[in-house]
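hi! just following up on the protien thing from before. the input was this:
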Amino acid sequence: MLTKRIIPCLDIKDGRTVKGINFESLRDAGDPVELGKFYADQGADELVFLDITATVEKRKTLRELVSKIARHINIPFTVGGGISSVEDGKILLDNGADKTSVNSAAFKRPELIQELAGAFGSQCVVLAIDTKKEADGHWYVYLNGGRLKTDIRCEDWARKGVELGAGEILLTSMNNDGTKQGFALDITETLATTLPVPVIASGGGGTVEHFIDVFESAHADAALAASIFHFREVEIGVLKRKLAEAGIPVRQ
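and the predicted 3d structure came back as:
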């Protein structure tokens, strides 16, 4: 049986790690290089780095920061933010990233997924989807850091992304993000049980029980969290021990 992965996320703004609630009210959470090393030492399975306000002008800063973090960790490292071409992805992979994460740019130009998968392999392409449940009960795709609503349903875009070559889905529920009230089990289960690629659940993890729920009930392959790790509310080692005690396979 494949082990379930625990993935801390570094949301980066102006070179610092930040964390908000429902994609707003950002607060400083520390130095990303120090945090990355700390999580690797604690037993994190992977690390995700997202430049949440990336622009073309910040590419150099992002590249240098990625390189610094990569030198301090020995676990798979996914980087996203501002990737809109194969060249953008190559720069990050050349500087220590193991996978690229694409979101808005891929939605606006889906061929980007094909291009990245063709250049680096599907295993290097993570399709990040920010989604929100609306009053009609459906989950819709949001772009530009959650600022722009589309009329496309999350499951439809996820399916298309996989058909184009995405090797993994990073699913963030905007309704749950930063609330520490639990992951969005319904949409996570929908994707995890219908797609042929791993699904990473993101948004809402606050307790050990939430992680147990997203693995047991929603069948996620991995769970990503930020503030509970950044502010030492749950330690990765303790979380993994509790998951193992609950019968969930994890790498110790």
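The CA atoms of residues 141 and 157 lie 8 Å apart.
The radius of gyration is 16 Å.
cheers
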